[in-house]
Amino acid sequence: MKAVLVIIVLVVVYMFYPQYDLIVKHSPFDEEPTLEGTRYLTEGSCREAAQAINARYFHCSSKNLWGELFGTYTSYREPERYSDPKLFEDLQGQ
Q: How far apart are CA 30 and CA 24, in angstroms?
């Protein structure tokens, strides 16, 4: 019984533990960022990887297995992310 409980706890931790992807823009005027690295276990290791390649404009995006399985994450590409007008219906009255 204890082994089953330990397995369940480990699976839940694995499903919700964040992993980081390194997203880099090579200049502030680039339209699309590029994915330079994936599956960093800490945000610090993601930032170190960005410093190792001398990236000035980068973002460490947090993901977990739960979000990947159920598709709750959006695309890295801003045109795809912001092209849906339904997301901005509440802002149009302002």
A: 10
